[in-house]
């Protein structure tokens, strides 16, 4: 047997047979599979995570069926009305793992008693950053017309706050896709829901009732960098508690540097 495999004539003949098998058996099968067209759902515009999918965001197209993922969706009926579980770009195929029947969780289910979700009113279009705020943003809250002296405040307790949702007066969160040709004011956010400590919640209730809150965007980006800002705020709030016992002097949160 060893002598047979050392025989150059035998090896050359074996190579020719294998080449013929590939050319006349395997290749036609692969080409047939690739040539067989399948209708799938493809993305037509940028879609952010949590967006409710509408008909104008997707299209049905025919592509070669070879090597398509098993969970690629083949009809827009399985897409429209569902929510994106990941960011999607034009040209992406929609997989069943990238959509969900349920609206995205803005963080309410993860509340553990240490933090609270509180909603505050936006008194004007500009006060809510002209409708440009997004869930997950780190924002700073200012207070205008506060109290009898109509002071403007920059509360250190609200320097870095996580935004859970911006909501219209119709109850539509900013995780839902807005009609881009609808410029009416009633489609703009009228409340902001933020994740805060009990100390911050107490301040917010006071500022809500005795002044006008304005939001400023501090950071939008990776969750790890957002956490750096929020950790600084938590450290400051902890120092307030310690100061009441006479152990330390509160220091305002510093600024996070570096990273995107």
UniProtKB/TrEMBL annotation:
Domain SAF: 38-100
Secretion signal, residue range per the UniProt entry: 1-32
Region (Disordered), start-end ranges: 239-260
Pfam families: RcpC, SAF
InterPro entries (alphabetical): RcpC_dom, SAF
Record flagged with keyword Electron transport: no
Keyword Protein transport tagged: no
Domain of life the protein comes from: Bacteria
Gene3D superfamilies: Antifreeze-like/N-acetylneuraminic acid synthase C-terminal domain
Keywords: Signal
CDD domains associated with the record: SAF_CpaB_FlgA_like
Name listed for the protein in its UniProt record: Pilus assembly protein CpaB
UniProt organism field: Caproicibacter fermentans
